[in-house]
Structures are given as C-alpha cells and as structure tokens.
Amino acid sequence: MTVQIKTSHLIERAAKHLRGLEDLARSSPLPPASGEAAAAQAAPVSPATSLVPPRLIEFATLEQAGMIPWGRKRERIAEEFRLVQSQVLRQLDAAAKPGSQSSALTNLVMITSSRPNEGKSFVSLNLAASIAHFGARPVLLVDADAKHTSLSHHLDLMEAPGLLDFGAGLVPRAEEIIVPTRLETLSVLPIGGPGHTRADLAAKVAIATAVERLVRRFAPAVIVLDAPPCLSTSDPSALAPLAGQTVFVVEAERTRRSEVESALDLIAACPAITLLLNKSQLTTHSTFGAYYY
Ligand SMILES: Nc1ncnc2c1ncn2[C@@H]1O[C@H](COP(=O)(O)OP(=O)(O)OP(=O)(O)O)[C@@H](O)[C@H]1O
Ligand SMILES: [Mg+2]
Q1: Does residue 290 contact residue 9 with C-beta atoms inside 8 Å?
Q2: Is the Cβ–Cβ distance between 115 and 259 less than 8 Å?
C-alpha cells in the first residue's frame, strides 16, 4: 500500500528526536568492565590499556544511540526499517541458495554512503536491530568507520576494544571483545583502539581482511557493517567484492548525483546494492525510500 506523506519523512523526525538524546548518551559513564584482559599476540603495536569489553548494552543505551523502539506502537519509522530488513533478508536468502554464482560473503551487509553524515550509523543500528528482532537471526553490528566512529560514540563504546584491536592482532579471539546487548540476538563490535591514536592504528590495519575473518568466524550470523563513506576512504571499495550486499544511504536533497555515481562506481564489485533515501522531504506517494540499484 502506498502512503501519502505530508510532513517530513518519519525517519527524519525520529532522528531529530534522537539528536536531542545524544548529549544524554555522551554524559553516561561506560558500563563497568568485567572479565580478564585479552593477551596480545604477535602484535605489531602494543596495547596501552587493558582490552576489556563492557558487560552488556542495555535497551536504554541502544535507544539513546538511535534505535527506534518497536514495542510500544506501530510507528511508521519502525515499519520502514522492517521493510528494508525484509528486503535485505530476501537478498540474503537468495544469495545463500545452492547454485548462486556469487563468491561474496553472503552474510556480510555493508552500509555506506558517498559522504559523511548521511545517516549510515543510524541505518546500521536500526537495520541490525530489526534483523535481530524480526528476522530472529543472530546479528553482529560492527563499527568499521575509524574516522567518524559515530556508532561506537553513540553506544558509549569509545573506550572499548574492537575491530582495530582484532585487526592489529592485539586480541587473539574476537569473541572476547564482542559486546552483547539486552536484545539477545544482537551483539556489537566497536571500532576499538583505546589507548592508541586511532588514526595510527587504523593505518596499520587492513579492515577488509579483519572483516573477512570475522564473517567466516561468526557464520551464519549476519554481520552489519557500519562502513566509512566511499569518497573518504578506500575501505568500502576494498570491502565491496566481499560483501554479499550493500545498503547505500543517500541523503535526500543534499548528496549530488555525481557524488552518488562516483561512489557507486567504487563499490560496483558488490553483487547487490540497495539505495536508501534518507532525510527526505517526501510529499508524493512513496512506499519506502529503498531501491535496488
Ligand atoms: N533521517 C534522518 N533525519 C534527520 N536526521 C538524521 C536522519 N538520519 C540521521 N540523522 C542524523 O544525522 C546525523 C548523522 O547521522 P549518522 O551518525 O547516522 O550519520 P553517518 O553517516 O554515520 O555519519 P558519519 O559519516 O559522521 O559517521 C545524526 O545526528 C543523526 O541523528
Ligand atoms: Mg557513522
């Protein structure tokens, strides 16, 4: 069914609300640490702090970070994410069928965009939560954006070990640094690098290699990757042939068509790309802002 949208797109309205909560999230202390520090193995750089993950991410923290609460009423924003989630799962199932030609890692879903600040982390969190909840599959949400780190920041995980530490060989087993959430099927791997200059550590780590190891280790879990923008780093381009599918976020009325085209050229090796129109001021009929590319 199509819906006439007379006001701002609901994703936009929800995000406005969530922006107001960001200050709250920033002022929250980190959850208490637990467990033993992981030992560094043949590390090219040495850890300056003990690599101890936080215990558990509560629902309140997920919501402060931008997760749309779906339990209270059927909000359009949550419905929209359910539609994208269904599309992603359909693609995932199609690629997993015997006879599928793709050599990509079916379970790897990359979220990217042309430029910073288009809503990648917001989409990553909600898509991951939606797949975990409605798709009833284990999902690992990974922050792979070492420059903007918005997901780790929103989840209060800036001091936690994560992808960079795993990629640099500072933790032998990713299991030790994955943070569970109150939503049982959803776990998070932050960007990591506490105690280091993150940019220095990121320069030493091959993100695509680290992600590939993660995906193989945690199959059949769905890995939702909050990746950097295509026009800022080469990571999305390196990840594109690995990812079973990409959700490409386009900020409506801001991103230039030429930028979108250049960015899509860089990730053309990905077998399935879905465009997701974000922050749109739609006044015409629309079912949802997601289109196959
Ligand atoms: N649909 C939306 N409408 C309004 N604001 C939004 C929408 N989506 C995201 N935002 C807001 O825009 C800002 C950037 O969103 P987000 O952090 O998800 O983008 P990003 O692409 O991950 O940015 P970065 O490249 O810096 O990591 C946040 O303040 C977020 O709340
Ligand atoms: Mg981000």
Answers
A1: no
A2: yes
3-state secondary structure (DSSP) of residue 65: coil
Is residue 235 pLDDT above 60, yes or no? yes
Checking if the pLDDT of 121 tops 70, the result is: yes
DSSP letter string, 77-100: HHHHHHHHHHHHHHHHHHHHSTT-
Q: Would you say the CB of residue 229 lies under 6 angstroms from ligand 1?
A: yes
Closest ligand to Cα 117? 1
Select the more confidently predicted residue: 52 or 9.
52
All structural domains of the chain, each given as residue ranges with its CATH number in brackets, are 3-25+54-292 (3.40.50.300)
Give the highest mean pLDDT range of 85-94, 181-190, 278-287. Answer: 181-190
Q: How many residues belong to the chain?
A: 293
Closest ligand by atom to 113 CA: 1
Q: Tell how far the Cα of 79 is from the centroid of ligand 1, in angstroms.
A: 19
Q: Is the Cβ–Cβ distance between 105 and 242 less than 8 Å?
A: yes
Tell me how far apart the alpha carbons of residues 145 and 190 are, in angstroms, rounded to a whole number.
Answer: 10
Beta strand segments in 130-195, E:
139-143, 179-180, 186-189
Tokens 């993100």 locate to 207
At residue 139 the predicted structure's pLDDT band, cuts being 50, 70 and 90, is very high
Distance between CA 28 and CA 25 in Å, rounded?
5
Separation CA 101–CA 119 (nearest Å): 31
Ion ligand 2 — residues with CB < 5 Å:
120-121, 148, 150
CA-to-CA distance for 268 and 64, rounded, in angstroms? 34
Nearest atom, ligand 1, residue 279 CA:
1
Between 219 and 36, name the one with better pLDDT: 219
183 and 136 Cβ atoms separated by less than 8 Å:
no
Phi, then psi, of 3 in degrees rounded to 5: -130, 135
CB 249 within 8 A of CB 89: no
